[in-house]
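Aim 2 progress. For TnsA-like heteromeric transposase endonuclease subunit, the working sequence is reproduced below.
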Amino acid sequence: MPEVVRALEVLPGGSAGPPETGFEVAYVAPDGTELRRPLADVWAVPFEHALPVRAFTSYRRQRNLPGRWWSATTGGHVGYESWLERDHVMLLDFDPAVVGISSQPFWLFWAGSGGRPVSHAPDYFARRDDGSAVVVDCRPAERRRPRDVAKFDATEAACAEVGWEFRLVGAPDPVIVRNVRWLAGYRHPRHRVEPAATRLREVFTEPLALMDGAASAGEPLAVLPVLFHLLWSHELTAEMSQPLSAGSLVSSGVIR
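Predicted C-alpha cells for this construct:
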C-alpha cells in the first residue's frame, strides 16, 4: 500500500491547477488506482470502499498500538493506529445507522499561511444508511496542539463544503466502551443461533432483566452468546450508559 498518494490526474481541459475552493483530495480506489482531484469533484466518491492512503506500521518500542478491527458492518478488517482509534472504529461498527467504514480514507491538501502546502489524512470515513457521510478524527483533547487544531478546522471546513459531517473525538464514555467491547466479542454472525434467537426476541417483547430472560429462553450458557449478539445487532436493546449486568433491563424496543 502506498505510504503517500502523490499522483495528480490532469483535470478536464488539460489543467492540473488547484481547485477554486483550495482543497484537493487524493485517495486509493478499491482497485489500487491512485487519484487526486478537486474536493468538489469527489463528494459522491464511495470513500467507505477506499483503501488506506497510509500504511499501518508497527515496530519495537512503538508508543501507539496499531492493529486491525474485524468489522461486522463491512465483513472485513479496518485499520487503527491507537487504542483510541480502535474504540472509535468499534463504536462506528456498533452504530446501526453506519453501513460502511474505511480508515485513512484520503489525503486532504490545501494551502496554509503564506501559501505553504498542508496535508492531512483523517482517521475514518463512515457511510450511513441514508447516504450521508461522517469523517472522523481521533485525538485526545490534551494532545491537540495548535498545528493539529488548524488541520482539524480545515478538515471540518472541507467537509462542510461537500455536506459531510465532521467529528473530532477524544476519549469516549468508558462505560459505553466497556459494554460495547463486551458485546463486540459476539458480533460475528456465527452467534446468531436458532431457535434461540427467535425465542429471545419473544421473551424480551417486554423489558425483562437480562439473566431472567436468558433463563426463560433456555440454558443460559447456551443462550447468553446469542443474547449478546442480538444486543450487538440492536435486535434487542439495553441501556449502554450503565454497566451491563444480570439485572440490566433488555427489551426488543427502546429502554426508557
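Residues 1-20 have pLDDT under 50 and may be disordered. This observation will guide construct design in the next reporting period.
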